[in-house]
Amino acid sequence: MEISASYSVYKYFSMRHENINFDLKIYNQKLPESQSTKYLGVYMENKLSWKNLVESTINKVNQRLGLIKRLAGAAWRSTQETMNITYKTYIKPVMKYGNEVLITASGSTLKALEITQNNALKLITGGVKTITILALQLYTGHLPITWEIKQQAAVSMTKMKDLTQTT
User: Fold this and answer.
1) β strands within the chain, DSSP E
2) Whether pLDDT at 117 is above 90
3) CA dihedral sign of residues 76, 79, 81, 87
């Protein structure tokens, strides 16, 4: 296997405030630094703040929410149950994909996901803006997305722990 310097970049991860400049070369050709890296659909930036991941997730979810809007419209008049199932099977997996890493994200970063989920639940129920989020969650049977992310991370960590103990 031969490494192509023209297609290669490097990425470092650090919690330091100042940037570290590396001089990495392949075949005497300097490699450029990547500001954000996408690996298996998960965006990673060097400070691991996960803002790019959350932004891309919200963009994908907002595109898919168009389907819920069409289902809720006058032409289709779908039931809340149909819209809830559509949300659960078509939109929620996008919100939860690769989000085990978000266990380390700040509350303000995760708040954007909560707002997106709350908007979806309002569409499903036809709820007015003044209805409480807790009422929407109870009515539709959905936990807050940050709780589900923490739950998913705990399950993943338990599986990893079990795998390491059996080997």
Assistant:
1) 25-26, 29-30, 36-39, 42-45
2) yes
3) positive
- Give the model confidence (pLDDT) of 156-165 as tens digits: 888 877 777 7
pLDDT at 146 over 80: yes
Q: In Å, how far are 6, 98, 99 from 57, measured between CA atoms?
A: 30, 10, 10
State pTM to two decimals.
Answer: 0.76
Half-sphere exposure of 57 (CA within 13 A, CB side): 29
**Looking up tokens 């959350």, which residue turns up?**
54
Place of tokens 């996960």: 50
Spatial CA neighbour of 68 closest among 81, 94, 87, 95: 87
Find how far residue 157's CA is from the centre of its chain.
Answer: 18
Element (H, E) at 26: strand 25-26
Token digits of residue 125 = 């129920």
Contact 57, 63 (CB under 8 A): no
**Half-sphere exposure (Cβ direction) of 85: Cα atoms closer than 13 Å:** 5
Q: Decide if pLDDT at 110 tops 80.
A: yes
